[in-house]
Amino acid sequence: MPVYWLDTNLIVRFLTGEPPDLAQEAKRVFQEAERGQYRLKVHPLVAVEAFYVLTSFYKLPAPEVAQKLLALLDREGVVVLEAEALYLALNNLGQAGLSLVDGLLLHSAQGAKEGLATQDKGLRREPVRSSHRTVAEAVFSPEPKEPDEGNLTSEETSRQAWEDLLRGEKSV
Known about the structure:
mainly alpha, Rossmann fold
């Protein structure tokens, strides 16, 4: 099966619906991937860039953008590198002041059972000890949220959000 690396512009066009012709083309790309015609591979930096374009240039609310990204990326035919860390970062966005990048770094470090060296006060609640030495002021460990209506981790909620996106409802 062919694999294509997804670029940020397809995410932004699909989620904004602008311009309409490019948005329709982006929609087709995601639908064809979901039908198994090919796989879309997504680097976490693409998701982060899309998040920042949508929240800064388009001035869309961060929680809404995070939910739409989760619905769009958690699909058949879409393979997200470091998916668990990215999904946790999107779900925990804003918790204890975490930005998307901070959350991605934090959850990547936790997933690898490694520390996070930082001077960011929001991230340095507990020191992390490695086998060699203490990494000073390193990691904050938020508990992942349980699935609920505000947390798109359930398959049913994700499916509904995806269907809303395809119909053009609840666009960002």
